[in-house]
Structure formats: structure tokens, C-alpha cells
Design brief:
This protein is an alpha/beta fold. The chain contains twelve helices and five strands. A five-stranded parallel β-sheet has the order 2-1-3-4-5, with helices on both faces. The chain is globular and about 70 Å long. The two termini are about 35 Å apart.
């Protein structure tokens, strides 16, 4: 029997019609490390050291997840798993994952030193958003030790978010929503419709949609094109168009409300989200 109460003949629906208050940015591929090279190279080297080389595409597949989870997912790839069994005579175990992850962190810290340049236009764009009254948060698949090394490097280039969330600060990292929610709590921002999550990976986009906020995918500077700024500039146009379309399709299919080439395109997206919010729309 459905619940009813004759004294409740009406209900009220609250709609947020204000502007975006908080933009939560990913790190590699979104604001720093054009092409997401540091983690891709590190994963490749970790598997090579285990006697099971992997392709660039295999290394990049689970990008955005907690890095231990990333290693697990690569090992779940049927081709990689088959090569592992052929090499080691048994399937990979949790002990293997633990060892590889323990090796990942110091290697990532070393590799990252060469891939920590801010993406062109990122600092100016972020400053523009701040001038419009928005707070800047951040989430990452990196854990705290890696993020702690990255923070001063970014600060020297002019990027200091209002809050940093690392993958080991929450019960579960991406694609779960907890890091976005942690940003909103720590920066005292509500409702969730006033938050925009920006990321270049499927798990990062799902982190935003799972949180209930707007999600913006970044294609050209991110994981699915997977090339440095110099490599993109030298790439034949047909190859770039093909890679870029694949990146757009991947991010759209993950549930992104918008997909852009680079963070420099974000202000126009924010303006459109503000228009939709003023009209009473929700993510």
C-alpha cells in the first residue's frame, strides 16, 4: 500500500539557479603533463621489469584509477594475463600486484620530474575562473606521496589549487565520487549542481557524474590521444583527427556532459553551464 497523507496535497521542488562555484580539476593530461606521459611510461617500465612488456595502449587503458587498481586492471587484460602466465607459469597474484605497486611509486617520482610542465594556457585559464568567483579543487589517481612531490613543482609554475584530493584519502578512488565530494566539503560548496569536474579519462568523468555534478572531458591534451605537445604538432593531420575523434567518442560514451580539446576551452563551457543552471537545469 502506497504511503499517503491528506494534509500533504502539495510538494515543493527546489532548483538551484545560481552559477558554478567550484571547478574540480584532474592533474595529468588536464592541467599538467601534456599527453599523460609520466604514468604511461612508468606502467610500461614496471611490467617490462616483470618480464611482461605491455603496449602503450595496454598501459593507458585503466588511466585515471588509483595506481594499484590500475595495475590490477592491466593484469586482468586477457592478452597481458596470457603473457604473464607464459612467462611465470602461473596467473598473477595479489602479492605480485603489491610488489609492482611498491615499485611503481619511487619510479613514478623519478619519471615525473621530466613530465611536470603545465599544459599551455592552464594557469591563465584557472586564474580567469578564479576572477569569476570560482574555487579550484583537484583530484588525482596519484597517491599522497606522489602528489606531495607534484605540488611544489606546479606551484613554481603558478598553479596552487584551493584543495588537493589524492586517491588514498578516500575509501575508494575513481570512478567513485568521494574525491569530488571531499573537495566540496573542504571548500564548503553546495549544491552539487554548482560543481564541475574536469578530467581526461573515463574513470575521471564517471567520478564527476557519480558525484552528481557536471562532467567535462578533455581530449587533445589527455590520455586517449596520448601524445606530447611536440608529438601532436608533428603528427600528420589525418592521424591527429583520427586519434582526437576516438578520444571524443570515448569521453562522450563515458557520460561527459561536454568534451573539449584543452582546459583553455573551459571558460566557454562554464558560461554555457551557467546558462543552463539559470534555466533550472541539472546535470
Amino acid at each position: 500500500m502506497a504511503w499517503s497523507n491528506p494534509r500533504m496535497q502539495y510538494s515543493c521542488l527546489r532548483r538551484y539557479r545560481g552559477p558554478v562555484k567550484l571547478v574540480v580539476l584532474d592533474w595529468a593530461g588536464t592541467v599538467i603533463d601534456y599527453g599523460v606521459c609520466a604514468p604511461a611510461l612508468t606502467f610500461s617500465e614496471i611490467f617490462k621489469n616483470e618480464g611482461v612488456p605491455i603496449s602503450n595502449e595496454e598501459a593507458r587503458g585503466p588511466m585515471g584509477a588509483h595506481k594499484r587498481v590500475h595495475i590490477q586492471r592491466v593484469l586482468e587484460n586477457e592478452s597481458v594475463r596470457g603473457r604473464w602466465v607464459q612467462k611465470h607459469g602461473r596467473p598473477p597474484t595479489e602479492e605480485d600486484v603489491d610488489r609492482m605497486y611498491a615499485n611503481f611509486v619511487p619510479m613514478q617520482l623519478s619519471v615525473m620530474k621530466n613530465y611536470s610542465t603545465m599544459i599551455p594556457g592552464a594557469v591563465d585559464t584557472i586564474n580567469q575562473l578564479r576572477e569569476q568567483g570560482m574555487k579550484i579543487g583537484s583530484t588525482t589517481g596519484y597517491t599522497t606521496p606522489i602528489l606531495e612531490d607534484l605540488k611544489p613543482v606546479a606551484a613554481q609554475q603558478g598553479y596552487v589549487p584551493d584543495f588537493y584530493a589524492a586517491a588514498d584519502m578516500v575509501p575508494q578512488a575513481r570512478p567513485c565520487p568521494y574525491m569530488v565530494w571531499l573537495n566540496a566539503i573542504k571548500l564548503d560548496v553546495h549544491p552539487i549542481e554548482a560543481v564541475v569536474k574536469v578530467d581526461d579519462t573515463v574513470d575521471g568523468v564517471k567520478e564527476g557524474t557519480s558525484a552528481g555534478c557536471w562532467a567535462v572531458g578533455v581530449a587533445k591534451t589527455g590520455n586517449y590521444v596520448g601524445a606530447t605537445e611536440e608529438e601532436v604538432a608533428a603528427m600528420p593531420q589525418a592521424d591527429l583527427d583520427r586519434k582526437l575523434q576516438r578520444a571524443y567518442d570515448t569521453l562522450i560514451d563515458s557520460g561527459a556532459h561536454y568534451v573539449i580539446d584543452s582546459i583553455v576551452d573551459l571558460p566557454d563551457v562554464i558560461a554555457d553551464i551557467n546558462r543552463r543552471l539559470a534555466a533550472g537545469e541539472r546535470p
